[in-house]
Design brief:
- The chain is an alpha/beta fold.
- It has a single domain, classed as TIM Barrel, CATH 3.20.20.70.
- It has an 8-stranded parallel beta sheet.
- Helix 4 links the parallel strand 3 and strand 4.
- Helix 7 packs parallel to helix 8 and helix 10 runs antiparallel to helix 11.
- The relative contact order is 0.17.
């Protein structure tokens, strides 16, 4: 098997959703300019990414790193095969996203009240009601809806999260038009066995929807979890160039799994992504220079193999 920079030709495809411009930047002390964030998004597309979490329509007073979402959506290069995702948490954010002409709307619904109240100012039940309202508002727009279940593997406030609780939330999400459901380990507490069990349980109630997984490497289990998800049949994975990331409302939450490190794992395991490992590593370094910190990712330091 020959492994090239974008994965082995003929290998089964795994889609990478690049979340660096949103989840990768939202917890950083340094706020990048709109121009730098546009450049980051466009460079990710040049690397081969076809779905990218570009912006978040949240209150900039609470998350100043995400200010300027409308300007970013005006400035990015558009292409018919590229989806620029906008994260929204409420109807006000959805209205902004629609005016900004995002390609896809992603709504985050926590699995726990403790996190939901602190992050979104509502209970989980209230957030699910808001999701249903946003789903109705999207009707006829042609813009697909995806939903991320955050704190699906554990909550910084409520502790352990049962599989049954996540399944209950997913059942409600399956009543909407969502085309994809993502399971997010928001604080990086999950382990591979938990991933395997949760993916199977959620798949049984997701009514055929695509499943996506989102992992943080807070406790050094993120890449093992990503591989467990891939082995369980998940074919869409989130990652962030450089391994930057974290949540301002989740204590001690650290970076996402790094796109370049994930690409190495997937490509060497026979899976194809269509994303250039070398370009992703270069973008991780570029992002680190602008944030004035070294990327947590390893690929930029160790290099690909064979060289």
């Amino acid at each position: 098997m020959t492994v090239d920079d974008r994965g082995p030709a003929g290998g089964e495809h795994v889609e990478i959703v690049e979340v660096g411009p949103r989840d990768g930047l939202q917890n950083e002390a340094k706020v990048l300019s709109v121009e730098d964030r546009i450049a980051m998004i466009d460079r990710a597309v040049d690397a081969g990414v076809r779905r990218i979490e570009a912006v978040s329509f949240v209150n900039p007073a609470r998350v100043p790193q995400m200010a300027g979402a409308e300007e970013i959506m005006k400035g990015v290069r558009r292409a018919p095969d590229v989806s620029h995702i906008g994260l929204v948490l409420n109807r006000r954010g959805l209205d902004r996203a629609l005016r900004a002409a995002v390609s896809e709307v992603n709504v985050a619904v926590p699995a726990t009240d403790g996190f939901c109240v602190r992050n979104q100012g509502s209970t989980v039940d209230e957030m699910l009601d808001a999701l249903a309202d946003m789903d109705r508002a999207l009707e006829g727009t042609g813009i697909p809806l995806s939903v991320t279940v955050s704190t699906a593997f554990g909550c910084p406030f409520d502790g352990e999260v049962s599989t049954e609780r996540v399944v209950e939330v997913v059942r409600r999400i399956a009543d909407t038009s969502a085309v994809e459901i993502a399971l997010a380990d928001t604080i990086g507490v999950g382990v591979p066995r938990q991933v395997t069990e949760l993916v199977a349980a959620v798949a049984a109630v997701a009514d055929g929807r695509a499943l996506r997984c989102h992992f943080h490497n807070t406790r050094n289990t993120g890449y093992a979890n990503a591989w467990a998800a891939a082995e369980a049949g998940v074919r869409v994975l989130d990652s962030s160039v450089g391994g930057f990331g974290g949540c301002p409302f989740a204590p001690a939450a650290t970076g996402n799994i790094a796109t370049e490190d994930l690409l190495y794992l997937l490509h060497r395991s026979g899976l194809h992504t269509g994303v250039s490992l070398s370009a992703a590593a270069a973008l991780g370094d570029w992002t680190g220079e602008r944030l004035d910190k070294a990327p947590p990712a390893y690929l930029g330091r160790a290099g690909d193999f064979p060289a």
